Amino acid sequence: MKSSVIVFPGSNCDRDIAVALEKMQFKNQMVWHKETNLPKSDLIVIPGGFSYGDYLRSGAIAGKSKIIGEVIKAANSGCLVLGICNGFQILTETGLLKGTLLRNRDLKFINKDIHIKVINNKTNFSLKYKKNQVLKMNIAHNEGNYFTNPKHLEELEKNNLIAFKYCDEKGNINNQSNPNGAINNIAGIYNSKKNILGMMPHPERMVDKIISNTDGVNLFSSLLN
Amino acid sequence: MKFSVTVTLKKDVLDPQGKVVQDTLSNIGFNSLKSIRQGKFFEIEINETDQSKAEKKVNEICEKLLVNLIIENFKINKI
After folding, report:
1. Catalytic: A204?
2. pTM of the complete model
């Protein structure tokens, strides 16, 4: 399986995702944002970081970069796209995913391990997980407070387009287990065709027992399936 | 031709920064404060002599990049 990781000035999780992909046997290449050709890929990853220093709004400038036109074309023709953290913010800025990410409810940058629940386990990104499985993952963001209009929120809930929701260790989804104020505790969403996933938690940081845990492994092995 | 653009959060969108500024002002004695919303301000100079054409261009600039229409409103003024 071929993957491409898009690199912007200010991306800082590009190496982590590349290591995770290679560990999972993806044939990966890094693609600089100024490229106008995207190598043929089964999976495109937009990594975390602070592309363009979060100028204007996080993800706004990267969302208009040269390579993004190619990413949009590939996404529309069914290529799998994964946006993590700043990658999720960039995907909302391109319009590939609806809604937006506001500043965290408490105005603080949050870097900690939290729990999320697998809401939909029937997609290319999640089929190796169990439904309602609780995963421990790391988040590290200042703008992770997902927000969308009521009509789209209803569409997300009704059409099973919510990938993950923040929860506590036992799987309870409530205000206490919501780290950043995201609407309905949303931590990750799909587009209507479910070939694009945007999520704030970092699965690429959870692929090795020595440094964290292996709760992110099944996301990548689902993609390989 | 020069324009100013003011970008503000929509009414229903929580503005935590504005809220903190408001709370701080209350703490230092500004008791009559009703509300504060924080926004962004841009000054744009454009090579165009026809005002309606220029305004149209600035509008396009706002919609394409400066403003996130999901959560923000904007106002254009000639200066």
Report:
1. yes
2. 0.92
